[in-house]
Design a protein that fits this description.
226 residues, alpha+beta, Peptide Methionine Sulfoxide Reductase, Chain A, two-stranded antiparallel ribbon, 7 helices, 10 strands, globular
Length: 226
């Protein structure tokens, strides 16, 4: 069943993308920080409607940083994933919702065993209109967190995007190049460091429901435009 769902999602994505080839006005970009960028990138490569991802560093005070510079934790940069997506298939609102489903937004400067300001939770937007949508989703997230864990809330940094510095080529598509599944709609666990843990679980009812919602939107768009 999972294979059929993923194959269907991939086909819909390809058909919808082909139908809008050259329609650049439907593309949008958001930059996200949610811990080690390897696993965040792979998670977004699986999201229907995502066209491209790049890992890198942003929001720091040091020009042209290297990975080694940033891991020292004193450059002010966050490890980020620049996500380019097709708004006719997936909305910014759902991209941000998905982001909150794949990382822990309640831990300050930390994701799991990764500790430091470079591992902070952050959303960096391209236009002020994006900020309104992001704030709406964060309000929803905080309401849910409060109901689950009293006094818990997101500590996610939300700022206008400043300079993005791509990470070295070695880091681009790192987990995909290591053999992990990057196919659209996949919910198989992500091994965050390649051949070892920790594990990022994506097989959640909320994620499956979100994927199905996006697939329905893609199918409707494909039927309309083909």
């Amino acid at each position: 069943e999972d294979l059929n769902m993923r194959a269907g999602a991939s086909l819909l994505w390809l058909l919808a993308s082909a139908a809008r080839l050259g329609a650049s006005d439907s593309t949008h970009k958001i930059t996200l920080a949610g811990g080690c960028f390897w696993s965040v990138e792979l998670a977004f490569q699986r999201l229907p409607g995502v066209l491209e991802t790049r890992v890198g560093f942003a929001m720091g005070n040091h020009g042209n940083p290297t990975y080694e510079d940033v891991t020292k934790g004193d450059t002010g940069h966050a490890e980020v994933v620049e996500v380019t997506f097709d708004t006719s298939m997936v909305s910014l609102e759902d991209v941000v919702r998905y982001f909150f489903l794949i990382h822990d937004p309640t831990t300050l400067n930390r994701q799991g065993n990764d500790v430091g300001t470079q591992y902070r939770s952050g959303i960096y937007y391209e236009s002020y209109k994006d900020r309104e949508i992001i704030d709406k989703v964060i309000k929803e997230v905080n309401k849910g967190l409060w109901e689950k864990v009293e006094r818990s809330k997101a500590v996610t940094e939300v700022k206008a995007m400043s300079m993005f510095h791509p990470a070295e080529e070695y880091h681009q598509d790192y987990l995909k190049k290591g053999g992990q599944d990057a196919s659209t709609g996949s919910v198989t666990p992500i091994r965050c460091y390649g051949d070892r843990g920790p594990i990022k679980e994506l097989d959640k009812p909320e994620i499956r429901a979100l994927f199905q919602k996006i697939e329905r939107k893609a199918a409707a768009a494909t039927n309309k435009e083909l």
